[in-house]
Queue: 4 jobs
Job 1
Amino acid sequence: MPLKVNDRRVVFTLKVIIHIISLFLLSNLYYQAVNDNLGADPVEAVLHFTGIGAFNILLLSLVVSPLAQQFKWTFLLKVRRLLGLYSFAYALCHLLSFLAFEVQFDWLLFISEIIERPYITVGMLAISILLLLTITSLSLIKKKMGRKWQQLHNWVYLALCLIALHFYWSVKSEIIEPSIYIGISLLLLYFRKNKIIRWFR
């Protein structure tokens, strides 16, 4: 169904809201970190916020299609790419914060961490997938790829699983929160079970 005038206004408003909330939360996080207002372990606070932020936004991007189909809100599909881009932006901040604060840009140490710590390994795989999806989200590249574009972007489901696993493995004691996130992820994948089955055939 083509967008109506009102739908365009709604899409524009939603995009503005997404920009404002995403950028404000991220900039406020680092502002609080610089001013030492993140508690006893600011590094952990930054890593958790950026990581869970990337996860939350990715989940929101995957909620868009079921909502659009259920309620015929096709205008929601116009904000899906923006949500995906912000999911990668938060994931990139998560990675850069780890590089800066945990290993202090010691690349040999960073590589050894990837090899020796499985939760970092799967995290890097997830970010690599998100990076590839971000690069190919440009309209020009999408047009050139044709049908292969959709096949590539189905890898977001693998990224979702890897992020859920990364979160679960990274938690040392409390497993209730990551378990809830795993449940939500599995539910969203269930909504796409037919599409996923066709993908593997």
Job 2
Amino acid sequence: MSEPTEEEINAAANAKRRKHKEAKDRILATKTLEGGLICVHTGKGKGKTTAAMGLVLRFLGHGKRVGIVQFVKGKWETGERTVLEKFGDQVTITAMGEGFTWETQDRARDISAANAAWGRAKEMMADPSLDLVVLDEINIVLRNDYIEIADVVATLRAKRPALHVMCTGRNAKMELIEIADLVTEMTEVKHHFRAGYKAQVGVEF
């Protein structure tokens, strides 16, 4: 039996792709819902905030308005904050945190900062002009019980139907995962930190 010709291989591959597209089109036709999503980026892998900022850029590209609250990285001069401040007509960014808990070593101050940030987040979620609100590293303060998970869940459940909310940080609480529409877990396969690299401009901040 002779080997198939290149033309026959292409024809078979094209037929397979046509069937694949037909199946995909049938699935897509059943997807009719629209509205604001509750999204969570969690896990031990790097890239949770980075991915959230990519989402922010996508919203900006569509002319939409975004609010960002940074619960932990307040004292860091981050590249994303410097860039996004240039989009002042579209982005409201508030850096409320004072660093990671091992840096402040002051639980009472951390709790105060976390609650102030959560108050600002509530204000943003109530602002009808915002299409997306990013709660950066909220999972860290929730994990440490600096703000009430019940309050966060209730607020997210009661948000405006069209508002999208993105929550980032390791160790997302199950209560948050359960009400979320989209949950992505970043899995660490390899990290340069373990090889002795320090946090670097443009990569970490």
Job 3
Amino acid sequence: MQQVLGCSVSYRIAVGPQQGRKVFTLQTIPSCEDDDRFAQVAKESGFSLHAGVAAQAWERQKLERLCRYISRPAVSEKRLSLTPSGDIRYQLKTPYRDGTTHIIFEPLDFIAKLAALVPKPRVNLTRFHGVFAPNSKHRVDVTPAKRGKGRPHEEHEDKTPEQRHQAMTWAQRLKRVFNIDVSVCPKCGGDSRVIACIEDQPIIDKILAHLMKKGALPPPLLPAARASPDSDWFA
């Protein structure tokens, strides 16, 4: 993935026989007039930073438009099309400064570019700044959980180390990650109560083995074993 990410940033082909070469682009002759859009744009090593947009706190509509622009999808399906040769052609919303209007990808390289946009597992995609930042001393005053560096020490004395360590229960994590609500009975839809939370692996194995022996649990769904195409030759 490091190679795929590097090629995606530097506009180079990541896979295939053309690996390492620049992607094919369609360009037009740029206008000789100065464009104010690029007056405050910095580019370095494939990255670009646009500092030409500013919004005041009272400009709610402008802030909403800016937030919608930031949270837009990475790829617009309306500007995607296929060429007669079977390649993927992506039309840019705004031409680049050098006149680039379209980018041509081979199908395999286009999949590599999409793979580079998928975030890694367990990576926090939300960044907080100001009073919501983790190191802000005022975070305890503005967050519902009242967690932060400014939290009084006497509140920690009322909880055990296990309670301070666990931010969420297993039931809350199952509902948040896998959409499994153990507080609702799957048969009648009534409320269920968590009696105990067992985390020791040997005890879990004994309970599952006992339930499996009594037939209370269905057998595990394992994929069918497959031999290699040349297994008969090796035999």
Job 4
Amino acid sequence: MKPDRIVVGCDDEQAALNMRALYAPFQRNHDRLILMDVRSAELTKYAANAMLATRIGFMNELANLAEKLGADIENVRRGIGSDPRIGYDFLYAGAGYGGSCFPKDVKALIKTAAADADMRLQVLTAVEAANDAQKHVLGTKVKARFGADLRGKHFALWGLAFKANTDDMREATSRQVIQDLLAAGATVTAYDPVAMDEARHCFPNEPHLTYAANQSAALANADALIIVTEWKEFRSPDFDAIKATLKNPVIFDGRNLYDPALVRSMGFEYFAIGR
């Protein structure tokens, strides 16, 4: 309702006037309509999402490097984000992006460049590869802590949707995390406020994946907690209850929801992304 820009691709003068009239109620204070040719508008849409995906992929790779070097990616984020040329948006490290837009638009640009222009987009090809690898980071951390063979291990997983406030599981990181855990022999109990029906469609007839009625119930008999989606209700949990319920006080946080020092001071092993 309050767009920061309205990009319109149009090659007809009357159509341009109609579009300007259509969008007039949504830009009372400032003219936010940007008119351009159709091809440029199409490319603008894909380029915007590809740029945001690139920022996320870049920060995820820096987070992995920060862990190896003993740095904290949150400090790095604040340090570089304070530069007005960079800014803070889409600089949060995590377990990989998903959804309907970023993966699709990155793939579309790569394919369009190859098919229509005989070009290889090297940066976006790297972004796609980095994001695919990032989705395995949580599974790798779990196996580093509990061993490559996870038979007999059971994990609680909070968050199935690709991001909070949606039930969308297209390209969701949770799908890869679950697949990695099940492939290693583990069992999983998952909870998501709205996406569990969608998860049942994504994992039909999977006996080693069950669903809990709430986030607390998901913890029962679990060897550790894995957080994949940044739902608001996960941000301030009862850590005492978590510690009392888990077999081991271990949290793998794929969205860096908590202060590492605080969680570790409560007796948890806390594995975040780049912290």
